[in-house]
Amino acid sequence: MDASASNAKQIVVTATxxxxxAATNYNKALVPDGAKALVAENVFDGxxxxxxxxxxxxxxxxxxxxxxxxxxxxxxxxxxxHFQHNPDPVKPSVNPAFANPTNEIWLDFETDEKGNATEASxxxxxxxxxxxxxxVIHADxxxxxxxxxxxxxxxxGCVSVGF
Length: 163
Known about the structure:
- By secondary structure, the chain is an all-beta fold.
- It has one domain: Superoxide dismutase, copper/zinc binding domain (Immunoglobulin-like, Sandwich), CATH 2.60.40.
- It is built from 1 helix and 9 strands.
- Strands 2-9-8-5-6 form a 5-stranded antiparallel beta sheet, with no helix packed on it.
- Strand 3 and strand 4 form a beta hairpin.
- The chain is globular and about 35 Å long.
């Protein structure tokens, strides 16, 4: 095995909303029971790619999605804030210097006519001691304006992932 392959890693979590402990839906109108999610983390050569694949959500709709600091819980707030590689000292983080797709994992997507979508995000870092615990699906696409950066509406679904 060469040196670059020795730092390769992959994690894959598949879950069905309403049926799997790993997946929680907080808004069943937007993330119905029976909808499915796959989250994959691939680490290679000092970069991390996270892929989100969803099936059976509301067709032709935009959603926000991000890696969050904690695993899913009984409410959307249990997942904590967005995971940030370089944490913003101000909470909640809405400063685009910290709340951005290079410092966080952003996975916004738009479903097709069947409610399916796949999105991936690659960042130039790897999870180390501080790791994310979930991917949260939000009701709205992610905003980028100062004072609103990283916000994406209500937390409507969550998949626990052991990044």
